[in-house]
């Protein structure tokens, strides 16, 4: 059989063990290095349009001239409504849509998360395609308040103007839905949920609907009468899912080649296309993907397999609503050309400049290699003779392999069966390590549930309490195990706990890498110390270093880093997580609390055991 | 049955009841998983058939329902209450657990008339075997999702339990029921016959031919009665085509954890019948070989056949694998002789997690395609095949060491 371990390797187990260690370290190093190589020209590719039907920028865009005056008039309307309540806004918007001859629907929604209430009213209008059969639709969306809670004057005004303008064209083959969502975070989610009839009782159903949504463009153009310099394209969806690359390429190509508009990604305002800038863009993209949160109204559409982007204006330049209107018009003409749902181009990619990307085949190995490194470590720990519990009294059997000594006794009888008494070699005792690891994973439900239920105000207090608990819990556990289990079982127990914990972690991370690459990669990087942090009862300083290292790479440390990265308080991050879970169905908290945190706890347990064993003198193992 | 057995079984059943009541939406979610429900076992389709049946329409008309007619009459007698249905499924698992305890207590896995394992004292106690079944996530998920494979499994186990206790007629009547419900248990007839022969308690043993006759008669009679009853219930023979025909001809290509669906999606029509015959015959060829080679341990031949069927049958689900794994626990004393335990355990865990992830990418996220899921079902099948092969190796090695005790602990070199 091909998988048979060669006999000579079984004899020389230490060679195998060193081999595994070298392999796992090698896998991790190669994994990280290969990620850093991605921005180079040799590994990344220029973007290209895969779907020939899109024909981006092939049509003349006519929006402009007198239409601009209409936009300015609507700006004034929006400005006047500025601080009105959402139902007043919705009513006025509905009136405008109706006067343009469109079918209008309104939708109230109400979400509760982290002790806060998020209410609002979406308003939308459907333009039935003169040449279509209402089986497909494209959406133009403008949130009333954008993601930074600024009044999206330009975006809303432009949407209103475009609704009148598009109505005059007879070339649409897909319905166009104009959506003005009440805010940028909860509103689009409520609307898209209701569009697919997957909403709860807290959300109103939609009165008017159209066909399957093929694409969404969100316009985010806040501020009064300002001109802008560049278009910021936002594309990250909930849970790190991404829209089809063709949609982004279309938007980039139209703005760049047709409108002479610069496009930016990931808030990289001066991208010089150097290695550093590419790497930074990619890493920022990865952080957004890993957090799996919403970066704009488009994010909520992506889980429904609807490709969506936000076009946000940035800076102060010479472009005005005319340029933005023509860009949107041209993108819509391209979307209108689609013969089937976006499928040609990539769904898994990392962008490092508006026109450079790497696809999944190139970048996936780096996250997989880290998961493989963890798994290889688990296999090494399993093969290690230290995973086996020696018989009471110690040195009875030294061999790593089980070589049952036998004394055969012939037994009479008609079946002539020979009964052999087997004195088993050293065995692995699986029960305690398995229950520690599985128990830790089940305990992950507790912080997850607590942080999703409690109020915003008490969050930071509960969080510090939880940090303290998680700091003490592993120590308590290791004290408990050390005091209850007999001495010769201790080391194998901690050894095997680490083995199973790393095996689970490697497995979870490789699964996660296929769904959300960045989250898997980042957790993998933070979990690297778990590969080395072992029980060292004979060397307390080493154990101390390990503890510090583990503490620095704990999920809490990561939370603080995230909070710092955005300059938010820790309670804001937790509130965002809770909001994400209740409103968007964001899975990141589940992964952190029931995959990463348990692995970390088990790692701490085995390191803390060193101190306890050294103190109690149970060091022989 | 001692107190520990009762405790384990009680906790296992309680766990299922708690899951049913604490998460009322869980059965629906799990029942939609293709890994758990197949077209021939799905609870949803059973309800569809039941609806048609109770409204006087032939349940086999729509081409949706492919399960045995007796299930229809059983479920139409049951009061229309979710709780009672759930309890009924839990009771089926209770029967399975009790049967496993009986099989384990009989000690057949360690001592047969032809073979006494040198490691027989390392066997796990019956409660541990029951625990392996009751706390296996695969069997829990299967019970919660309520596919009808649960009944087939418990009847197969019941049949084996009767066989090891020497109750010939009940064993074969049960086997007939299992075969009636899902066809493939009919493959277990030869090893079960050998098992019954080895375990018969009579002082003067009749010849194997006589036993064969004694056992075939109840089997065939029972099977005939079940089919005739089904005919009476549905008032036509069309159920044969809609149930066994579906097992044999694979008209429904819904994905599952097996190897057939993808293969037959890709197949050109002209080759379809050839490969259908080939795939079905492939399952049969293992029966004589295993019965001959494992003549000394017919129970293990039977278990291995269960394992092989769970990989290669037309509509497998994780319920089949859970049956095999629970039965395999009876031979845990040979596990130290297996060579890839850790690798296999890790691989089966990997497949368990990657399978749903890839299915999600394919069906929901739309960013993957059918090849993703198929790749994982391949891994799943390979891992299961390796478990079957490795367990077989361990048991044969155990047998071998009984004959040649001087070779215990020596490495085997394959030339």
How many distinct helices of chain B?
Answer: 18
Strand order of the largest sheet of chain A: 2-3-5-4-6-9-7-8
* Largest sheet: spatial strand order of chain B: 1-2
- CATH topology name of the largest domain in chain A, in short, is Aminopeptidase
Radius of gyration of chain A: 30 Å
| Low-pLDDT sequence parts of chain B | none
* Overall morphology of chain B: globular
**CATH architecture verdict of the largest domain in chain A:** 3-Layer(aba) Sandwich
Total count of helical runs of at least 4 residues of chain A: 20
Q: What does this entry look like structurally?
A:
The complex is a heterodimer of chains A (621) and B (415). Chain A is of the alpha/beta class and 621 residues long. Chain A has two domains: 66-354, Zn peptidases (Aminopeptidase), CATH 3.40.630.10; 430-616, no CATH class. Chain A has helices spanning 7-11, 13-37, 66-81, 86-99, 153-168, 187-195, 245-258, 275-291, 321-337, 360-383, 431-443, 445-453, 459-484, 487-515, 517-526, 528-532, 540-552, 555-566, 570-584, 588-616, and strands spanning 45-46, 103-113, 116-127, 136-143, 175-181, 212-220, 228-234, 262-265, 307-319, 349-353, 356-359, 405-409, 419-423. Chain A has an eight-stranded mixed beta sheet, with helices on both faces. The longest helix of chain A is centred in the last third of the chain and has 29 residues, at 487-515. Chain A is elongated and about 85 Å long. The two termini of chain A are 37 Å apart. The relative contact order of chain A is 0.12. Chain B is 69% helix and 1% strand. Chain B contains 18 helices and two strands. In chain B, strand 1 and strand 2 form a beta hairpin. The model of chain B has no long low-confidence stretch (mean pLDDT 90). In chain B, helix 8 (149-164) runs antiparallel to helix 9 (168-182) and helix 10 (189-199) packs antiparallel against helix 15 (298-312). Chain B has one domain (3-246, 255-401). Chain B has 415 residues and is mainly alpha-helical. The chains are: A alpha/beta (621), B mainly alpha (415). Chains A and B meet through helix 10, strand 12, strand 13 and helix 14 of A and strand 2, helix 17 and helix 18 of B.
